[in-house]
TrEMBL record:
Domain named OmpR/PhoB-type: residues: 125-218
UniProt xrefs under CDD domains: REC_OmpR (cd17574), trans_reg_C (cd00383)
Cellular component annotations (GO), alphabetically ordered: cytosol; protein-DNA complex
Protein name from the UniProt record: DNA-binding response regulator, OmpR family, contains REC and winged-helix (WHTH) domain
InterPro entries named in the record: CheY-like_superfamily (IPR011006), OmpR/PhoB-type_DNA-bd (IPR001867), Sig_transdc_resp-reg_receiver (IPR001789), WalR-like (IPR039420), WH-like_DNA-bd_sf (IPR036388)
Organism: Enterovibrio norvegicus DSM 15893
Domain Response regulatory: residue ranges: 2-117
């Protein structure tokens, strides 16, 4: 998973990132709520870990803003020293999926992350669709108007990501990250995959916004 950690204590953020990286996740940092929102607007994250007491914008306000935006479904865990019942109720009211009080064991936080991940996977529909285009994760088939397309695994990943965001634009860097992760690849690699995918789709279904990314058109 790609995880955003918003924590104004740099040492605490680094310790948490070291552990999450060790168990196989990619981690980005923000040191206040406004910075977290900026990162969220530029990248796709699978989970957000928020402190509450941060400068510029606190975690509660950041959580409110996230739940009101296009990334409203992203799971959020508050990790904070605020430990009263009223604090916890305020966190859940703002939209948190979980709430953990400092000090904590990183193993407990990771167990909560795994539980959230499993819960979200159970909620995910096996079929994504937009217009005439569908992707069935159970059969790993992409169809247009019910007819299966012969796509390679990379092209299927692109279709799945575009369908999950449709009709919104998906940034080129988000598509590249979904395919290759942190691996450095030539920019032409994504263009080549998009070119091949476009040839397999009906004309006008895959739209390029130059310098920004790609989106699906229902026609």
């Amino acid at each position: 998973m790609r995880i955003l950690v918003a924590e104004d204590n740099h040492a605490a953020a680094q310790n948490l990132a070291d552990y999450l990286t060790l168990v196989g996740h990619d981690v980005d940092f923000a040191y206040h709520g406004a910075s977290a929102l900026q990162l969220l607007n530029a990248h796709r994250f699978d989970l957000i870990i928020l402190d509450i007491m941060m400068p510029v914008m606190d975690g509660l306000k950041a959580c409110d803003a996230i739940r009101a935006g296009e990334h409203a479904d992203t799971p959020i865990i508050f990790v904070t020293a605020r430990d009263t019942l009223d604090d916890k109720l305020a966190g859940f009211k703002a939209g948190a999926d979980d709430y953990l009080v400092k000090p904590y064991a990183v193993e407990e936080l990771y167990a909560r992350i795994q539980a959230l991940e499993a819960r979200n996977q159970r909620r995910m529909s096996p079929t994504l669709s937009f217009g005439a285009l569908t992707f069935d994760s159970a059969t790993d088939l992409v169809r247009v108007e019910g007819k299966p397309l012969l796509l390679d695994p990379t092209q299927k990943r692109i279709v799945r990501l575009l369908l999950s965001r449709a009709p919104a634009l998906v940034a080129s860097q988000d598509i590249a990250y979904d395919i290759w992760g942190e691996e450095e690849v030539d920019s032409s690699a994504l263009r080549t995959q998009i070119y091949r995918l476009r040839k397999s789709l009906p004309e006008g279904m895959l739209i390029t916004e130059r310098g920004k990314g790609y989106r699906l058109n229902a026609g």
